[in-house]
Amino acid sequence: MTDGWVPEIRPTDDLSAEERRRLVESMRPEDAEPVPELHEIDVPAALREQIESAMSKYPEIRSASLPALWAVQRHYGWCSPEGMRQAAAVMGVTPGYLESVATFYDLFHTNPVGRHRVLVCHNLACWLRGAEDVLDAFCGEAGVDADEADHIGASSEDGEVYLRGFECMGACDIAPMASIDERYYGPLNPDDARAAVDQLRSGEDVLPDRALSKRQAAGGPEPDPDPRVAAVEDGS
Amino acid sequence: MAHETRLLFRHIDEPGLASIDTYRGLGGYRTLERAVKEIEPDELLNTLEQCGLRGRGGAGFSMGKKASFLPRGDMEKFLCCNADESEPGAFKDRELMAKNPHQLVEGIVIAAVAAGTGQTFIFVRGEYAEVADTLDLAVAEAYAAGYAGDDILGTGHRVELVVHRGAGAYICGEETALLDALEGKRGNPRLKPPFPAIQGLYGGPTLVNNVETLSNVPHIVRNGADWFKSFGTEQSPGTKVVSVSGCVERPGNYEIELGIPARDLIFDLAGGPPEGREVKAWFPGGSSAPVLTAAELDLPYSFESMADAGSMLGSGSIIVADENVSIPHLALRTARFYHHESCGKCTPCREGTNWTVKMLERVVSGEATPMDLDVISSVQDNIIGHCLCVLGDSMAMPVGSMVAKFRDEFEAAIEVGRDAAPHPLDESPTDVKPVPLGAPS
After folding, report:
1. Does the CB of A94 have a partner CB in chain B at under 8 Å?
2. Does domain A33-112 have CATH number 2.40.30.20?
């Protein structure tokens, strides 16, 4: 809504609040979507509650962008334009702002993806231990193109499995590893990968004996404490 | 025979350690109680400065000194625990948080009291969903027990603690990008100075520390600076959790005293490469550290000795490549990662990582000439030090070091690749004969 108004060229510090508002308004493309009105949008109650609870935790509302996008993704399965519009309405920001944030981060999906997310690490430590074969086995079993999965991610035709070659996820001790529905599994071989896809499709527990949560420290059982550690523990 | 010295990893596999009752049963939270009730914040800060603890996130800067940079006064100050451990090869923070979250919470609260920061955050990377759930539970338990909140144990100290989940971006481990991500923006690094200690989160003074650094705090406050200095070397005091991965028999986290020979760590503790193979190259501090060779395995593993060898200890993550690994392919893998993760804000990094990947692809596919290796080196030289953050440097240093130390292998790869290429350069791929210039058509 510029109605032909052209700002005078002078330092923005000197502008009044009204002039500043019009300046910002004039710089906005005509088709930019404004902040959606909350009362005009139907936001699922559970989603709204999650976003509002996140907003209350931070000194500034915008800090809730990431938690809000996580909530949208959990609710709809991906960061859908409609979901981001709803979150934007609750937060009082433009949908474009949330979209700009969502596209920056690898874990937010701005396109629909398969129901189970499998991220296969293809970074150094996993690559050194055969990650390429594991990714190929996952892709072969799920019936997706390995090259596409490795670079941009791909979903199987039945919509059950989404596969993506991913950068280091911080579990090089179980290399080669994969994150399946946000839980870590490894070390994997191609047979494990094929079994995992079948288990995901049939709804069974995935690779129960490969779960990271069951792994003990690499150094083995607790050794005798160092004398300096033992001394202070006795004293307490 | 090298051995572990478990301080942070003490009782790491104790069943139920992640719950507050087990942690308290092993003496946990007593230090916090003493710190808020009996010790003045200035004295706490002094202890942290005296102990010489160096940041465990990568830069190795003195933790106490960093905390002392925060301005005094009544303004709102912040503490962020950097749990966005994304460096390839690093996984120590994951194990520390997943198995002993209360040690971290206790450390954060004590550090927050010492530095006078009322609002604290744990920025945990998005991939660590399981860890984030564990931390959420631990923080809720700490609040319920009065170890965090408005009025800690009735002493009037206020420390609020929020677990913030990232969403998958390596760059958010850089402290100013982390602050942007925490403010709900795209995680782009900021220009420094001003450093976060002066102007950080929401424009307020902010202390950013790594998980392992903060997990050390309860032990230091409990036992004193001199006790802490009895571990490790003079310039690198304390223990260090080292993540060893790649071509070794027993990859994993090992807690050692800094200063033991790297060979002991890689061979005695992690089991060395598979039977019959030799170490060819190793990254001493995650994939952004310049690689070292087998000849440098006997160096002591400490901040100062790794720096003297032209590399760095970084976050303390060793990745071992054995003799079967092709260094040009290793360089390409490394460069691809940084190319993917570059945020795109600074030109040398955005373009430099892209061109390095393209040139290395040419090296392994046989389309390069040995002259390209000089171009690769010069691109790396033009990245280092020319960006807002060190992401570009993190590619330039290892790739540059690989080209410098294994140049023969790159040249051989170029030759081998050229022979294997479907259309060697000296043969025309088609039957079309070149038309001499000026000839009538």
Report:
1. no
2. no
Residues B182 and B123 sit within 8 Å (Cβ to Cβ)? yes
Distance of CA B12 to the CA centre of its chain: 21
- A215 and B95 in contact (C-beta within 8 Å)? no
Find which of A123, A150, A177, A236 to mutate to test the B interface (most B CBs within 10 Å of its CB). Answer: A123
Whether residues B3 and A169 touch (CB distance < 8 A) is answered with no
- The mean pLDDT of chain B is 93
**pLDDT over threshold 90, residue B437:** no
Whole-number pLDDT of residue B367: 86
B5 neighbourhood in chain A, CB within 8 Å: 226, 229
Residues of chain A with Cβ-Cβ distance to B185 below 8 Å are 62, 65, 101
Task: For strands A116-121 and B206-210, give the pairing.
Answer: unpaired
Report the mean per-residue pLDDT for chain A: 91
pLDDT confidence tier of residue A19, bands split at 50, 70 and 90:
confident
Q: Amino acid identity of A164?
A: R
Whole-angstrom distance, CA of residue B56 vs CA of residue B54: 6
- Report, in this order, helix, strand and coil percent for chain B, each rounded to 5: 45, 15, 40
Taking the CA of residue B370 and the nearest CA in chain A, the distance in Å comes to: 25
Read off the pLDDT of residues B183-236 as tens digits, 9 standing for 90 and up: 999 999 999 999 999 999 999 999 999 999 999 999 999 999 999 999 999 998
pLDDT tens across B44-78, in order?
999 999 999 999 988 889 999 999 999 988 899 99
The topology (CATH level 3) of B239-322 is: Ubiquitin-like (UB roll) (3.10.20)
Chain B residues touching A212 at Cβ < 8 A: 130
Enter the CATH code of domain A116-206: 3.40.30.10
User: What are the structural domain ranges in chain B?
Assistant: 20-229, 239-322, 327-420
- Paired with A166 in beta bridges are A121
Taking only residues 1 to 20 of chain A, the set having a beta carbon closer than 8 angstroms to any beta carbon of chain B reads none
The CATH number, out of the four listed (3.40.50.11540, 3.90.320.10, 1.20.1730.10, 3.90.76.10), of the domain defined by the range B20-229: 3.40.50.11540
- CB-based burial label for A179 (10 Å; 0-12, 13-18, 19+): buried
Q: DSSP code of B163?
A: E
**pLDDT at site A133:** 97
- Residues from chain A that touch B333, judged by Cβ atoms under 8 A, are 123-124, 127
Res. B434: pLDDT tops 60: no
Is the CB of B93 less than 8 angstroms away from the CB of A170? yes
The residue length of chain A stands at 236
Interface of A with B in 45-84 (CB under 8 A): 57-67, 69-70
> With contacts defined as CB-CB under 8 Å, which chain B residues touch A107?
126-127, 167-168
Partner-chain residue, chosen from B244, B321, B341, that has the shortest CB–CB distance to A167: B341
